[in-house]
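User: These chains co-purify. Model them together.
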Amino acid sequence: MGQNNSLSNRILYQVKGKISIITLNQPDKLNALGGDDYTYLAKLMEKSNKDPSTVITLINSSGRYFSSGADYKFIKKYHELINDKKNDEKEIERQNDRFWFNDFIPRNSYLTDCFINHGKIIVACLNGPAIGLSAAMVALSDIIYSKNDDTFLLYPFTKIGLVTEGSTSYSLLLRLGLSRTNEALLLSKPIYNKDLVSCGFVNKCYNMDDYNKKDQVEVNKSTEKFNELILNELSDSVKFLNGDSIKDIKKLINSNIRLYYNSANSKEVIQGYKKWLTGVPQRQFINLANKNIKHKL
Amino acid sequence: MGQNNSLSNRILYQVKGKISIITLNQPDKLNALGGDDYTYLAKLMEKSNKDPSTVITLINSSGRYFSSGADYKFIKKYHELINDKKNDEKEIERQNDRFWFNDFIPRNSYLTDCFINHGKIIVACLNGPAIGLSAAMVALSDIIYSKNDDTFLLYPFTKIGLVTEGSTSYSLLLRLGLSRTNEALLLSKPIYNKDLVSCGFVNKCYNMDDYNKKDQVEVNKSTEKFNELILNELSDSVKFLNGDSIKDIKKLINSNIRLYYNSANSKEVIQGYKKWLTGVPQRQFINLANKNIKHKL
Amino acid sequence: MGQNNSLSNRILYQVKGKISIITLNQPDKLNALGGDDYTYLAKLMEKSNKDPSTVITLINSSGRYFSSGADYKFIKKYHELINDKKNDEKEIERQNDRFWFNDFIPRNSYLTDCFINHGKIIVACLNGPAIGLSAAMVALSDIIYSKNDDTFLLYPFTKIGLVTEGSTSYSLLLRLGLSRTNEALLLSKPIYNKDLVSCGFVNKCYNMDDYNKKDQVEVNKSTEKFNELILNELSDSVKFLNGDSIKDIKKLINSNIRLYYNSANSKEVIQGYKKWLTGVPQRQFINLANKNIKHKL
Amino acid sequence: MGQNNSLSNRILYQVKGKISIITLNQPDKLNALGGDDYTYLAKLMEKSNKDPSTVITLINSSGRYFSSGADYKFIKKYHELINDKKNDEKEIERQNDRFWFNDFIPRNSYLTDCFINHGKIIVACLNGPAIGLSAAMVALSDIIYSKNDDTFLLYPFTKIGLVTEGSTSYSLLLRLGLSRTNEALLLSKPIYNKDLVSCGFVNKCYNMDDYNKKDQVEVNKSTEKFNELILNELSDSVKFLNGDSIKDIKKLINSNIRLYYNSANSKEVIQGYKKWLTGVPQRQFINLANKNIKHKL
Amino acid sequence: MGQNNSLSNRILYQVKGKISIITLNQPDKLNALGGDDYTYLAKLMEKSNKDPSTVITLINSSGRYFSSGADYKFIKKYHELINDKKNDEKEIERQNDRFWFNDFIPRNSYLTDCFINHGKIIVACLNGPAIGLSAAMVALSDIIYSKNDDTFLLYPFTKIGLVTEGSTSYSLLLRLGLSRTNEALLLSKPIYNKDLVSCGFVNKCYNMDDYNKKDQVEVNKSTEKFNELILNELSDSVKFLNGDSIKDIKKLINSNIRLYYNSANSKEVIQGYKKWLTGVPQRQFINLANKNIKHKL
Amino acid sequence: MGQNNSLSNRILYQVKGKISIITLNQPDKLNALGGDDYTYLAKLMEKSNKDPSTVITLINSSGRYFSSGADYKFIKKYHELINDKKNDEKEIERQNDRFWFNDFIPRNSYLTDCFINHGKIIVACLNGPAIGLSAAMVALSDIIYSKNDDTFLLYPFTKIGLVTEGSTSYSLLLRLGLSRTNEALLLSKPIYNKDLVSCGFVNKCYNMDDYNKKDQVEVNKSTEKFNELILNELSDSVKFLNGDSIKDIKKLINSNIRLYYNSANSKEVIQGYKKWLTGVPQRQFINLANKNIKHKL
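Assistant: Joint model of the six components:
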């Protein structure tokens, strides 16, 4: 992995039988995703949606983390921007606005829409923690499996000075219940695997322990086994199922909730954009970065 | 039980104190229900609803299964129909249409409505597995008790090429949460007693083990004890409760959800009818029957 | 505690850092609340809501019970009224009507509204059981912590001949699921701490056991420790969180549910008022009082 | 017209360019529709829905009336049934039940669903009055044109002792406003063309007067001209429109209302069935028939 | 009329055939209603609702105005209160709070609920203008007739510094459309009879002109004729209608809107109460009173 | 007007008393708006929203048209893009995608959100026709006035191969009723002033005729008078109104509809983006441009 750092190598797309597989493939970066990665993920979701041969869209990852969330490179960009234009505050403001307006709004609203309005069964395989917008996509998946108790979901929006993303203001309410949603979203607390299993958010935990968690190779391998195991089980499950029935029943289920998902999506992207305009989240990201963010978030 | 195979013997109706009791009474058939049985069940629900002396409608069963779902005799009918009219495909199509149009639509929509709009507390006693439309009625009950861990619910609609029945596209979402609902409805996976208890779908499991599960007599007896136990507990509970309060509070609770239940009902019956028109579910039923369906479903 | 029995002593209000603290302070009465207490509680909720310095409204209590619900003095009043006016039934009816019309309706609808439309994180600390309208307020809190397994919630409306209060016809559905809600509201069954934890209603139980439960002093002390512990943890949590984000995200979450909360509120207060007009709940309260109500409810 | 009285002659189906045309073709019967006619109409709606070549489903009629509603032959049947079985009341009840259960429920719910969930633009051409279920289908059409002021809609459900049909409990509310809906549905008052135009229910009235209204030939001809005129105008309109855009926008519009339509459908068919079970509407129909119903309704 | 100024003389209640008639009977006061009048009106609505002999609740009035809204005596009370307690601002605040809390909240929420949840056809006869809470009750009636073009509705909440009352934040939206609702509620503009007719809010205007509008006797008489005319027409209409059908269809229609009505009710009463607490509306009323309010509102 | 073609000159912003005024100021271009103009309009909406001194946001225009919709320059850009990159289809596709993704999605969703969630009274003054996204903003205004019968609204989305924009899939349904909405949106028919007035979409038409419609100077002047007249009337209206009441009542009204507005917004922008990706609307625009689009649309 890695030399060829093109998008199609950072996120893999395969078809096996009735299953489209989307794989986050940057284990060394803990599968942090840049803006382009998220947009590419959305495009792959659409590609899978249109493929007449498959019934399931399986999203899995690699290594230790499912995805540590948004990549921080963009903050650097912003920082450099500030330094470059020191004397022209208006220009900084203008460029900041353009950056978030033209990038943040379409990316988040499109990615979220691709999950909300997906016609196939979305299965997410949580090999490890998921954070931020990536964790929001997990919460928009239909069926969720986890590898072991190292898994958690983290939505640190109040820590960064943002609002919820990826329709989590509705999806978590629907799936975690009100008390846990409030703790997760208002207090930015992680939700650990045990709770995810007990409240039915995670359908099944495979309890595949990595005995030497620091051994990257061991972890990578066990994640691969975890992915393989699920793929095999799903292939078996889906063999005797009727694809049209699946599509129609998913529509029936979603007709109860789609209005709320869509409404959350449009409110969140615009409110999020306005937060970025204030400059607060940018500063917060930089502060956190300076304090070894990996452990704090 | 059994010689007299009239409807009123296949499903019993009694009143004890403030409780109307409806009992599925064909343990030898695993309480599989034919079309007439389902309609008769609906009529008994209405009878109970109108009885001014009772406050609870208790639905229990007999033997090993709560109900193995729809009886397969109707498939035979269809099969014979095909053989009879070999040379007249239009006539087969016409008769098939009439069969499902005039039987399936009213039965399913009426039965579902009788549960959705019932004014009393519906208590379901799960002595064992429930499948298909019968399991859908369990999911429309207000309070649910189970006998032991042999219990499961199974909604095999995607396996048969149908869509959801009995408003399960909403009722399961409401009661199992989204992840479990997707597994149950999209992948046709059974939901086992342990999960039903942990997610609060089952209010209480009585853990009445049948040590020799193959001994039909033992199983029948323990189911009777299970039914008796619940009846006694409920009789005690309800003794000091105000019937008008119960009726009014149930209306208040249901006002939050009835729109969704009713909408699901009408969509499901028409979409289900269209599936039957294609002939796919019929063929699937026959296939499964040939492969010893009891174990596969 | 105690000598000075003014409202501001019966319910305390403090601000510590970013947290407003409302404390029920009548441990000897098991924190039973009279009509004025409930209205005062609502006023304190508003006071906290308007305080620009805080982000969390923490509600805790004292002693053994969080709150044993509505105080019974008002029943006495009613009883005496009946005795005083023995010969003038119309006057009794008129005064009864006025009493419930002018006191019950505004108190319940205002208190409920103050919780539903509160802008900060409401955290409830369940040191022990909560009953009736007090328990309804717990169910309208955002995050809930419990002290130990002695905790339960009890909504005995069908026992008294009332209807649900405090929008519980929606709030419990949202938080306990349908099966548990039906048992709690239709059968007036207590919901014990273990179930509250397992269904996610309680975010965390602190398992602070009182080894000698009859020792009032020990219990009082351990409740104080429980309150202190939570206050400290929350103070830590909230230190690094962005207040505007919290406010905005709470609005986003609530936009999914507020319509139902508000609708329940107006229906419940009017239906409740009509129940009181019949005289049934009054008689029921007196009956229960005569039978040592503390143990029966 | 006429000699050949097969279904396909009673209701015509043609395709002209991008328009499917369904024509009620029994002017001598004022286009009263029997049970089979309604079901056949539903099938033609589905046929049109699946036709990849068309974008509009145009429903027009012939002669003086769009449709005088349900044919009364079925009442005769019921009457004769009563006479035949004079001595066996239970059998009468049983047969009555079966008749309405197996015919009324599926016909009404299927027909209504075919209109609610139709993917193309439904255009209804009101050449004259429409009554009952036929008038309900008009209210489920997307665009409505009228010939002249002789047109009216009549929903005489409270006159016959029924409940609303064809989701009119929602569709009229949506299209006529609350005051007019109440007069139309609760008081069984006709809504005349002028009001239909002024409230926007009818998109356009063509004011094609029949100067000698008793001359059946003249009326028939002017209705044909009316139909032709609309067909030509629509053909022109639709020539430059994008079919995919139409389909997608119709979905977007309907997503706001479909939940209510579907819910009304399921409630109405079951409640209607229960009304028929009482025997009241049957007697009322016979009474009205004896009093020259044409003028009274 | 007049000498006997008891409640039962200020608002009359009669039953004629299938119609309960509630008549506002203080023409000399332009049927301004005090707090007790509104509560009494609500009680009469309930009385009518429970009367098994009637199907319609007809609300009419007397003289020139349907109702000029809330009586201003209560402002005087408040004014005097201020003068009496000049030196004790806290006491003024406390009494003001109690006054609006215990009177305003229950009256408005109960009256509104009695209209929203009424089971019969509510017919309002607008003999002339209706203002404020009285006009809100007109907007909650099912069918509305007007006498002539002198009629208007006025909701001057933004003029007085209040919020909407009687669920008008939803009822007007439903019945007047968004543009007219905004002008009526946000700009406090009257809606005149012509617009009420053209938008279908008023079902029919009887155009009974009073040629000498200053002649109180003539106006009183023509209002009586107007009331009589409607009563006769309704008696005729309702003669052949099925009461159960009416009740059931009204429920079906209302199931689409009741959630919004109820939610508006609870929000409006609490927000209105908070406005009164500020003292702003009181001052505004006194200002307006000093400027000959009759012409300005 | 004119020489200085900066954004702030193309759309003017003024404050007069309690009214913020936004003026489209390119009469020579019929106030066609480019992408930057729409974004700037949104920013001005926000500026007005935050201004503590005003209560009304008045949007007016200049000359003959309110706004002829989106400027066609962007099509030229696209056309040139195609010509420039003739040999690199992938690059064309990529640039096309980026163009619509980064510009179309944020602009439309932000602009729509700024109208939906605006806290003040939005008044639109229709001096003449409005088309497309501009017409969508009119439909999101609270109160609408028109100059004369030359006014119309046109939503030509099915003509161009797009989907609805600016939440018109809900806003028109709410304001025009279903029949007119279907004609306007599905058949791309203009809605003329007379219909806009009769259905209450336009609150008032000022009937200010331009006798010599070709005389640009006369038209410009009469539009200025129209704007002035409304400004004066509004200034008078608003003088005695309570700003807090207005804000609070607007929130109450909008709470009934905001969910639908927001949901429409997110669905429309993503579906619209996908339409642009196909290249169909671009080709259609060019075709129409070649055929003298001004008259055809």
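Chains A and E do not touch (no CB pair under 8 Å).
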